[in-house]
Prior knowledge:
Layout (H helix, E strand, L loop, with lengths): L2 H32 L4 H156 L1
Helix pairs in contact: 1-2
Keywords: Coiled coil
Amino acid sequence: MHSSDKENDIQKLKVGESKTLKRKLAxxxxxxxxxxxxCVENIQENADHEAIAGDLRADLRKLKQAYETLxxxxxxxxxxxFAVEDFLLNKLLRxxxxxxxxxxxxxxxxxxxxEAAQKLQRTVEELQVAVRYNDDEIGRLRAExxxxxxxEVEAAQANKAVQKLxxxxxxxxxxxxxxxxxxxxxxxxxxxxxx
Length: 195
């Protein structure tokens, strides 16, 4: 129960107690006026009324305490499910926030992964273009190398021929020197004879 309900119930009990006491006092004053001569009875009745009022007050206190206990127990019974509900709601909200954070993190990671994949795709395409260019260049160089090989072979043959000619020239020069020596020797021998 709410505290305002408790206060209303307590107020009603107080009002009821007050009315009861007023009625008793009114009846007491009526009794006193009728029996003015009998003071002892009035005092006795007054003492009885005070005892009854004391008993009523004690009963009222007990009822108030019982009411407060019941009200407190009811509040606990009512507030316990609300406390559980609040706890679960708070936990759900926390989980929702955590999940939203994780979702945002995963979205960022996915975006980064997409960007990396696109960059990798561009790199692969650039490499494929470079490979095609290199294949074309290799084909062109092979095409150019064919005549160069022929020229290389011709150059090698020409080098061999030049070496052979140089060797022949060397041999001829040696033969010419030998001949020159023989001619010189023959001249020396002929000059001796002429003299």
